[in-house]
Please model this.
Amino acid sequence: MKLQDLLVVSVTGLKTNKSRSALTILGIVIGIMSIILVMSVGEGAQNLILDQIRGLGSRTIFVEPGREPTGPSSFVEMFTDSLKDRELEALRTPANVQNVGKITPLVMNMMSAGYGNETIRTNVLGASDIVTEILDVFPQEGIFFSEEEINQRSSVAVIGSEVREKLFGPSDALGKKIKIKDRIFRVIGILPPKGTVSLFNIDELIIVPYTTAQQYLSGINYYNSLIVQAKTEEAVPRVVQDIEWTLRELHGITDPEKDDFHVTTQANIAERVNMVTGILTVLLVSIAAISLLVGGIGIMNIMLVSVTERTREIGLRKALGATNRDVLFQFLLEAVILTLIGGILGILAGATLGFVASLILGRIVSLGWSFSFPVIAALLGVGVAVCVGLIFGIYPARKASRKSPMEALRYE
Amino acid sequence: MAGRFLRVEKIEKVYRDGENETFALRDISFYVEKGEFVAIIGPSGSGKSTLLHILGFLDQPTHGQYYFEGKSIEEFSDADLARIRNKKIGFVFQAFNLLPRTSVFDNVKLPLLYSDLSLSLRNETVKRAIEAVGLSGRLSHESSQLSGGEKQRVAIARALVNNPSVIFADEPTGNLDSKSGAAVVKILKELNDRGHTIFLITHETYTAEYAKRIIRLFDGKIESDRVVSRRRSTAGQFIK
Model:
């Protein structure tokens, strides 16, 4: 039988039962749609997080206290006090760590800040002046605090655009005095609207000298983390090694397993994020695949009904010269056409939903959530759909092909 | 003997249902030459259809030999049988068995889908077959829009579209009024005149009148096998 004839015969077979064919397809559409949706949203989330991480620049290295968190219980270690002035000075010494550009300690607090009658709760970041370079944001009005002000533990603050908006409204903010946790700070700089960098919303930030934050705001003598900038991207691995050796020597650690700090690079984080989102995507896709399985069983069910219903037609075709193979291929092709159409519709529906989801999610997290048509997922979807058709179509098709022509013709 | 067009020897068909054995056919032997018009008659349950199904490769005998064009059917594979059904045999059924919601043209074309006839020749072939049964004006009608007689003529067109050497007609007039029935049998007669061998199962004796030879079955056995005397015939010998 010619392929062209086979196609015509199968399509005609499906057309004679349009609504049933459409309902059968629905199962496959939903299955493929869920897979495409999950994959496209997953890819969007991954790209978003990776973009955020890349926003920090590839030369950035994070040194954080405690061992690398491996689970929820080890988050406690993030609050250990292994990073203090001593460590900062050691890392600043070129003899210990070569190719270090700049280092800033970070002290982070969620605090209330007020001006006049307005009070807000926001993130107060204690940092050094080089944080502007790392976050790539510079005051659009006023100035950033200097090294001198850091050394003097000055009560000066640089505020994000949203903080400015909330506290001051339309009136002038520069030079005004704001109250952060009982202490008066003078606003010396205002940052332009910048949005989020590395999941930090710059616009909601108040930045003060880290020395001031340590002493007057949180009352601690350690740092929440150190951000080290390598001079070049190539130097990053070497700098990481130098930092580890320096801190181990300083803390008398011989076994790296017992480190009371951990060093991560932007590449590290990206890799980890990739892995986590990858695992999540696989997990969700597997769940979505269950609906595809159900859809496949639906196809098999309907094909079995169809084979029984069309017993006489099968007998007739055989009487007129159809071989078992012809009949097998006819019904198999019907199943595959169903799943293929279902797959294509599912891809379109999934991509559309994925696009809508990217708009909604982008609005919720107020970030530029990018939508990308998941080409690989789409190809995979078509492949999977065809396979489902083949797997669940083969049994009914074999059943059809094995009918004896005479008994099939006698069937009432 | 092997050279005969179609020959059966001591054919038996037994249906088993648990312990019970039902003999649908027993000890059937005869041969048929090319160009014969054989009517098979007999009461219901006498085994007419079973015999026709076996002759038309739709069923296999439980015992006995069947030679088609000199070859035992035991030599044929399933695919061979399908090819013979396609090329050498045409079927006409009592219940028409046309595809519903399908045009006359496409119904008649059906056997060609399973043949290796080139696409360019198909339409011509189909039209010629439809013309032969006098339905050229109904090409694009759906089968359900036709009268019973017209349906059966479409079925005949479908049976002869591959130019088969033998046409099996299983009570083609059974569902028709006498006028349409007569027209159908007349067409079969014309096909016979053009060289097609015809097997016609029928109840009514009047349709058997067109036949050159009448085999009468009773209770699965051949009761009589006679040449219709008023026609010129060379066939119709009962194998002793």
